[in-house]
Write a structure and sequence with these properties.
alpha+beta, seven-stranded mixed β-sheet, five-stranded antiparallel β-sheet, 4 helices, 12 strands, binds biotin
Length: 244
Amino acid sequence: MKEPFNIHSFQELDSTNAYALREFARLPHGAVVTALRQTAGRGRLGRAWQSEGKGLYFTVVVKPENPASFDFPCLTQLLAVSVCGALEELGLEPRIKWPNDVLLGGAKLCGVLAEAFTEGGKVTGAAVGAGLNLHQQPKDFGELPYPAVSLAMTGRPVPHGPELLAAVLRGFGGRYPYYARHAFAAIAGEYSRRFAFTGRQAVVKGAGGAQAGTVKGVAPDGRLVLETSAGEELFSAGELEPAA
Ligand code: BTN
């Protein structure tokens, strides 16, 4: 991914991830799909993502050269780190809530969702998308599982969407070659220094139910390490809910 970026811009789409997956065969590696509004924005864990035109919504098409050895699950963490880098260029201090939420002042500014593209039963690519809150005010956020914030709510000037997108893509493209070779290890340091929950009591909700414990950190492969009453447990997916 190098400038000039291959950006496909729309006024409105159902979902930039859905579009990228529908058009996957004709979109090259590194193509970016962006829309001003999404009518069916998708969030993690089957949730909807409100996309009424006040945020930045985009999806990057990823087609690794060696899909068999590529770390697809941690792509969301690569994008979250890249979003953090772009926000830091603006003087902000974002933090990460495992696995891939970007927080500002403890509230969620950006969510990331990767969806796999499969051929012949094998994952050969992914559409990795992010929704970043830009202009919302508190009244714009409906019922949400976690407090939300927008850049406008910080009181600072809100950057122009395309410029912010370009900064994220520069970061993503710059890190991608190392990530393709070294997987999460390529970004472990950058991720961990923005990870906000080490030492905190939390509950991890996953497919197997909810598990309470103390967050020990993030393992070298991107999994969350939780110290529970039964010992250390590692989670590769789920939702981290810090105790109040
Ligand atoms: C989350 O639930 O935290 C993930 C939200 C991801 C939303 C983005 S907006 C752009 C892209 N297209 C979608 O439909 N979803 C992602």
